[in-house]
Amino acid sequence: MSISTYARLLLLMFAASMTACDSWPMRGAKGVGLLPAAPPDAAKLSTSQTRNPFAELAPGILTRTLFEASSGRGYRVEVRDLLVGPGKRSASVTLPGAAVFEIRSGPASVSIGDKLEEFRPGSTFVVPEGAAFTVDNRGGTAIAIRVQLFRGE
Predict the structure, then answer these.
(1) Cβ–Cβ < 8 Å for 112, 131
(2) Which alpha helices (H) appear in 24-79, and where do they start and end?
């Protein structure tokens, strides 16, 4: 096909779509109005519960365990999520093992011992076994951290 054939085809498709758009309001609701409100006793609230909700690890920081298993080689592996809300600073926390942290959302200021570092989403770092850390969220969105935790059995 030549360029002029493509241009004609494109013009024809444009004209057809404009005609269809112009005729739609004629087939619409015709001013019927809103549906009536449901009676109060008809509202049914969900009874479902989150299977694995976050729980407070320490003031200002929430956690939930996603996976935990024995390696079969003398240590346990655990995968956790940590969450620090906007404008919050966590209390000092020590995890039960060595950990690899991955910042999943939000820029984070993390103090490990007396060393302060800034991290962005995608950053990874290690927290040694027995080391205390705090997470400071100065931003307007939550900080989500994925933690791979390793400890002896």
Answers:
(1) yes
(2) none
Higher pLDDT, 22 or 8: 8
Q: Alpha-carbon torsion 78, 83, 89, 91, what sign? A: negative
Whether 151 contacts 74, CB under 8 Å: no
- pTM value is 0.69
CB-CB contact of 74 with 152 (8 Å): yes
- E strands in 51-119: 55-58, 61-70, 75-84, 93-94, 98-105, 108-112, 115-119
* Structure token pair of residue 71: 């390696």
The pair phi, psi for residue 25, each rounded to 5°, is: -60, -25
Provide the 10 A C-beta neighbour count for residue 68: 11
First-last CA distance in the chain? 71
Phi, psi for residue 36 in degrees, rounded to 5: -70, 150
